Amino acid sequence: xxxxxxxxxxxxxxxxxxxxxxxxxxxxxxxxxxxxxxxxxxxxxxxxxxxxxxxxxxxxxxxxxxxxxxxxxxxxxxxxxxxxxxxxxxxxxxxxxxxxxxxx
Length: 104
Known about the structure:
By secondary structure, the protein is α+β, with helices and mostly antiparallel strands. Helix content is 45%, strand content 13%.
């Protein structure tokens, strides 16, 4: 029997993605998370080169959010089970730069 649902909604943001990428169970189930382990989430001060790196890192996280939104219904159900929630929200920018909100 499945555990009772504890959370009504979980929002997939950068911090949640980093946490998921650090968990071997999530990486095994969702291979695209393995790319996130090499990305720094904490911005540090510095020159413009750091800002360009931070922008590139955000693009990697945005691609992971797009991958979550594009998953099959079975994979989305598995994600909800692993997060112990009844609904997942993911917000990302599509290739044209427009913000998209997905709930499943």
